[in-house]
Amino acid sequence: MKTNKVLLVYNPASGSGVFKTNLDKIIEIFQKKKIMVVPVRADKPAFMNEIFKDAKNMGYQKIIAAGGDGTINVVVNAMLNHDLDLPLAIFPAGTANDFAYYFDIPHDIEGMTRIALEENYTYCDVGVANGRYFINVAAMGFIVDVSQKTDPDVKSTLGVMSYYIKGLSEVPKLQPIPIHLESEEFTGDEKMYFMLVMNGRSAGGFKRVGSNAEINDGLLDVMLFRELPITELLSLLIHFVQGNHTEHKNVLYFKTKKIRLESNVAIGTDIDGEKGPAFPLEIECLYRKLRINTLRNDMEGSNW
Questions:
Q1: Interval 120-173: pLDDT, tens
Q2: Which pTM does this prediction carry?
Q3: Residues 65 and 138 occupy one common structural domain
Q4: Dihedral of CA 125/92/107/200: which sign?
Q5: 267 with 158, same domain?
Q6: How many angstroms separate the CA atoms of 288 and 57, rounded?
Q7: SS3 content of the chain, % helix, strand, coil (to 5)
Q8: Peptide bond preceding 87: is omega within 30 degrees of 0, i.e. cis?
Q9: Full domain range(s) for residue 77
């Protein structure tokens, strides 16, 4: 008799470690449904590629990624690099879980496993930057330093609040960065503090960063935060928290399928919370590239 089987990739260091302590419970829930779980610790991309290289021949019905956006990113890159066309279930177990937030995936073990056991799916777009896939956001500039400089132990203890604390400490170091943008919608030179190219709606725990973004519209939302007097920074932050920053005079905002970014200075980049590729960047949206396990079936691609 053929055994139903799923591959579970989990990050034991994500969030507070609650998922790791519940791993046996999750395996038990699946086995009661006569589904075998093959657990694999999330590791370096090279190791993940080895795991996924032969996944097509292993008879998996589904892939489950348990962790934060960085863990999901590693899994998605491994899947797409090996043309693995399987549904992806999300177990949010990281610090911010921005991708899971878009689909309202529950954070409790029973809720997340219930969705993964059902056959409700939604197509979603995937971004790609210089060959690196991302599911939620590509960021560059000041905000990248905040994410990459935040101590992992602090992130585990304070969660999203750690980003806010680190961000405030870095404000005095703000320096404008020259950047050149090329797309069908906008081409020009700007001086920015930071920039986001969004597929999802939230980033770093801020729920309304991409308030106009739709994850299955074939477009990426570009938000460039221009140089501005320090006296106007508070106004921009208020707009940012409220989710109406795209209307602010110091924010360049547009939607696009593809964009090229160049600069004559080194700019740090971040892909779904992990260190990203170097400039220049070619960023593109891949339409309806993944099937995600969701609360309801939405394969026609209507917006959430």
A1: 999 999 999 999 999 999 999 876 755 555 555 544 443 444 444 455 455 556
A2: 0.87
A3: no
A4: negative
A5: yes
A6: 24
A7: 30, 35, 35
A8: no
A9: 4-119
